[in-house]
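Deviation from plan, reported transparently: adenosine-5'-triphosphate complex.
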Amino acid sequence: MLNRLALKIGLLFLGFIILIESVLFLTLYITFVNERVDEVMTNLLARGNTHSEVLAGSFEPATLEHVALMESASDFIVIITDAAGNELIHSDSIEPEMNAVLEHTDFDEIVHEGEIVEERWNEKEFIATDSPVTIDGEHRGHVFMFAGTNQIQQMVSHLRNQFLAAGLMALGLTIITIFLLSRFITLPLIRMKKATEQLKSGNNKVKLNIERNDELGELAFAITTLSSDLDRLRNERNEFLADIAHELRTPLTYIKGYADIASRPTASDEEKAQYITIIREETAHLTELIRQLFELAQLDHNQFEIQKEEFSLNVLFQSVVALVRPAFDEKKIELSIRCDPAIIAFIDPERFQQVLLNILDNARKHSPEGTRVTLAGGGDEQRTWIRVSDEGEGIPEKDIPFIFERLYRVDKSRSRQFGGSGLGLAIAKEIVESHDGQITLESEQGQGTTVRIELKRGESDEESSVD
Ligand SMILES: Nc1ncnc2c1ncn2[C@@H]1O[C@H](COP(=O)(O)OP(=O)(O)OP(=O)(O)O)[C@@H](O)[C@H]1O
Ligand SMILES: [Mg+2]
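Because the crystal trials were delayed, the predicted structure below was used instead.
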């Protein structure tokens, strides 16, 4: 079945091509016919002129007879008259139409050159020319030449038939070409439509075998890429959900277990207090996990309003350090700031404070006593950078590529001990990226870790530099 799009394209093309073909064929046909008719007329006139020239040399009965005799053997008819229009001789039998031509000739008017006197080939039986015979400037007679029009008509109808046949052939070929062409254009489109329908109904593994280098090929490629992206996203989502379920189940199992033990009549008050402390800790961990998940979800939906402003990096560092200092002191880790007070970044300070808190929290958790953590910042015309480096345990090389993924932790069991859920760096990355910035991590096991954030110079800086 011809599909609707193919039909539409086909009909549109067909309409245009028929129009163009008709105009072309008609023009060609008219030109052809006119040229052929002109040729016949010119020949007839030339023949009449030749006779009149011969007669101008000798306007004798013998010559007249000779001319008449010659034409009686030809397809043409000649009538020779004197200057007053009286017939002197004729070659074949005279038809009434020929007399009409003679009657309509104004013999008082002196013509000097041969002319066509009847050219209506499609109405009359004959076309006619009139060539005057002039001897020494004196007008002596007329040579009327006649040619039957049926020959012309035959030729024209033959030509018409040929044109019709050619036209029909062209039309047939056009229809076939358009049919093939429209299928060629629409078939891939229909396959792509089916593929997107499959995508909609949940089948994410569509494969389009459309090997083309044009826009349709690009579209097919885009659909295939989209389908695999969608597939990947769905898998990621499922994995993520499974991970979250796991994350939530573990503390809940603890809570339930300890609550059960604590409610046993045999449990001493001391034991009860201990279990309740564990339950508290686990509940706090759960609350934190849920808060972070919620934050990530908001970041994902761009519901997090980023309110950028020009903010001194040094001031930001100071406020973050003031918050974390007690925890660092407790673990005897030295925390220092290296930043030129003049450095201004175009950021949302609250969000960035959170980024730094997450990174510093990691540095503290994974550094032994007596080491140093440095918070450094700087910038030039194009960018602003922040660097947090520690001298801690570092991260194995194989884990580094996944470190910013949600719920990813190097050592799950140990990380739990610190209360980590593997969301801190994922949140930091989302926030940095929503600032159009980049966050990277370098680490060497046993040596330490450095997290680097790079931001382009903000819009407001650009604006002020334009001014
Ligand atoms: N400075 C660091 N030194 C060593 N390991 C690190 C460092 N920073 C991050 N990591 C490793 O990367 C993992 C992911 O860090 P991330 O901050 O995303 O999660 P988390 O700290 O485990 O949990 P959360 O931050 O959500 O409380 C950590 O579990 C840890 O194994
Ligand atoms: Mg963390």
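Residues 6 and 183 are 6 Å apart (CA to CA). We consider this an acceptable substitute for the interim report.
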